[in-house]
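My main concern about presentation is that the manuscript never shows what a single data entry looks like. The format is easy to grasp once an entry is in front of the reader. For illustration, here is how one protein appears when written out as sequence plus structure tokens:
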Amino acid sequence: MKKIVAKRVSMLELFYDLIFVYAIARITLMIHHPVNGSLPLKTYGEFIIVVIFVLQIWLYQTLYINRFGTSRMIDTIGLLISMFAATYLANNINTEWRLTFHTFNLAVALTVANLIGQYYFGSDRQPGKNRDLRAFLIALSLEFIFLIAGLTIGYRYGIYLCIIGGLIGFLMPTVIYKMFKPEQVNFPHLVERLSLIIIITFGETLVNITHYFKGAIYSPLPIAIFVGVAALFGVYTLLVERFLNHHQSTRGFIAMYTHVVMIISLLSITAGTIYMANDEVSRLFLSGFIATNLIVFYVCLWLYGSYNHQHLSLSSRDLLTMAVVLIFGCAMALLWRNSNLGLMTAFMLTNVIEFCFMEYRLHRTIK
């Protein structure tokens, strides 16, 4: 099979990512404040919907560049328009949807309309002859119709149409996935772009744990938090840089959707570390919230591992070993929940052991 030549990530793409640093920070604020000792399901559901809205816009722009972008004028102008709209979108992220309904969804509609224009005019291909292009235009057009209908009706009922539109844009590709051709995906570029959005999310985690870094530099709690986060990032990095086969022909669906869920779980873990400073938060909820999202993150990582080199594929025995470590670590988090240090020690040990196992698995294969 012919080796895929990686498309270089441009400076403009990195510039575009900057607004998503702000957007992710705004999204995290949605779940900063627990109510009655826990996080209301309604608030968490709104948080997930906003993550989906923001990331599906980022993904559609990334996929356009991945498949059709060649740094032409139309690509540059389209990316700048998307960035302009994303700035308004990010600035209107909150839990008071009634107050920002029109501005937020107008920004989404403008971005979607811009994406439709990019795909239609910037691809240099006929929708009737190119299945990939037709699939993208179908999904984006349906989303745009629902967004405009929702904005026209108004907040009371229109909010539901806007949400349906966003979910259509996010999930429609899974319904018509056979229309997408694997050979049109530049997988190395996609892996790099997805890794960058994860790095941005880990950056948000680091920013939010800094308030624990006070007093003596050898304080055990900040050390446990930092090592735990670093080890979790290390597990992800090992998988992407050493295990993953970047040069393969694939639609990349598992890669994209697992990253959306990983971002949701990672931001939830970040919120959990913030809750530790609040004495009114239920310790059972706190430990369960962090443990559950840690499990979700690892499950997504293992699914992402389906793109591994064949000789580095995780066997059933490998997955069982990692699952046992994860379950044991989460059990320790529940048992030690009454102490912030105990909770973070369990978090740290789980990630450090998982990282060491991945290193062992890698070197065992090399030998």
